[in-house]
Automatic annotation (TrEMBL):
Name of this protein: Carboxypeptidase family protein
Cofactor: Zn(2+)
Residue ranges occupied by any Peptidase M14 domain in the UniProt entry: 115-385
Keyword presence, Hydrolase: yes
CDD domains recorded: M14_PaCCP-like
Single annotated GO MF: zinc ion binding
Family the entry assigns: Belongs to the peptidase M14 family.
PROSITE patterns hit by this protein: PEPTIDASE_M14 (PS52035)
Length: 391
């Protein structure tokens, strides 16, 4: 018999009817807020050698919260596909089509068990194992800075030795749980920083301390949510007034930033409609200083030089809102720490236009390698951050 199940780590799908492999109908689950949906991750067994047709019957509901002014871009379901894997490690892309209501993909599994997902998951097991290993480095200190709504620990890694004059550089990821690209990207960064034979890492850590919060929304990750936390809050709209009841995750991270200080931050997200890696500075916050644009330009030029997977000069998709929403992490941070450079990162779900890899699209390995290129970009501006910035 064919079994379709999302009772797996970060699993999410509702089975409408899986009795006929040629017409497996599934529904995306909504987050606790009742609005956000789009993430799916499930396993199918007993279908080896059978031509399966999967329909996500409520895919069009995702478009109800599409960001403004994106009409010139493909929506989340166009020119993409489901990701599939037999071993949970190597993921390949199965082409899909969107008929205006359902997202449909067809696949004939070669093995008895096959996993499908919107993008390769980054599960708690991998995350905790990676963090546990990283903290054994003499360069790393681990601190649990608070707990999520459901009591999961929020960990922060301090990489390097704090000292007067060093820039305080923050990296936060996965406010939106389904944007798992951030997990692989962080592994790329941290692997380089902890390599004591890597000259860029050594030079960077001589003038900076890196504070990393690998997962701002561990409940969302564990529960297979798209964007919200366990209370249904979109954490990236909570930064101007986080509360212990509704958004303790942001409350704890922002409190720690206040306590330690901040000269640089990159907030790692992913966007279902983009075909590139995209970064932008918090240029429309009230405390923005024009000289920060020069630092940002130097930062992105260095990143483009280090990685052709950063497409230099891509405009803000749909236009950057003239009035910054201070509930968003990168804006709140940029406004609260006026001397700092606060950057938003969006990785793609689909593929990049430049140097695409059609078999996988944007993939964990590519996200990892993109992370490995980040230290060059940060090193290019670190001398102009913090106490060296002459503020
Ligand atoms: Zn996001």
């Amino acid at each position: 018999m064919i079994s379709v199940s999302s009772k797996i780590t970060s699993g999410s799908i509702d089975v409408v009817d899986a009795s006929d492999p040629a017409d497996i109908r599934l529904a995306l689950r909504k987050d606790p807020d009742g609005v956000f949906l789009g993430w799916y991750h499930f396993r199918v067994s007993g279908a080896a050698g059978q031509a399966c047709r999967f329909s996500l019957t409520n895919a069009s509901d995702v478009l109800s919260w599409r960001l403004a002014n994106r009409e010139d871009y493909d929506n989340a379901w166009q020119n993409t596909g489901a990701m599939a894997s037999y071993d949970g490690d190597y993921w390949f892309r199965v082409p899909g089509t969107f008929d205006g209501t359902s997202f449909i993909f067809e696949h004939q599994p070669e093995h008895d068990l096959c996993f499908y997902a919107a993008w390769p998951p980054y599960g708690a097991e991998r995350e905790h194992r990676y963090i546990a290993e990283a903290q054994t480095s003499p360069l790393v200190k681990l601190e649990t800075i608070g707990e999520s709504v459901e009591g999961r620990p929020i960990d922060m890694l301090t990489i390097g030795t704090p000292d007067t004059g060093k820039a305080k550089c923050w990296i936060i990821a996965r406010q939106h749980a389904s944007e798992t690209q951030g997990g692989y990207f962080l592994e790329g960064i941290i692997d380089r920083l902890l390599d004591e034979t890597d000259p860029t890492a050594r030079a960077l850590l001589a003038s900076a301390v890196i504070y990393v919060v690998p997962n701002v929304n561990p409940d969302g990750s564990a529960n297979g949510l798209t964007r919200a936390n366990a209370t249904g809050a979109n954490l990236n709209r909570e930064w101007d007034s986080p509360s212990l009841e509704k958004s303790p995750e942001v409350f704890h991270v922002s409190s720690k930033m206040e306590e330690i200080g901040l000269d640089f931050c990159i907030d790692c997200h992913a966007d279902k409609e983009l075909n590139c890696n995209f970064i932008w500075p918090s240029e429309n916050v009230p405390s923005w200083k024009p000289e920060r644009r020069d630092i940002f330009t130097r930062f992105e030029e260095a990143w483009a030089a280090a990685s052709p997977d950063y497409e230099l000069g891509h405009p803000y998709p749909g236009g950057c809102p003239a009035e910054a929403n201070l509930g968003m992490g990168w804006n709140w941070i940029g406004n609260r720490f006026p001397h700092s450079l606060s950057v938003l990162l969006e990785q793609p779900f689909k593929d990049t236009t430049e140097f695409p890899t059609p078999e996988t699209g944007w993939s964990p390995d590519r996200a990892y390698n993109f992370g490995r290129s980040f230290p060059e970009a940060l090193r290019a501006v670190v001398g102009r951050l913090g106490t060296n910035a002459g503020q």
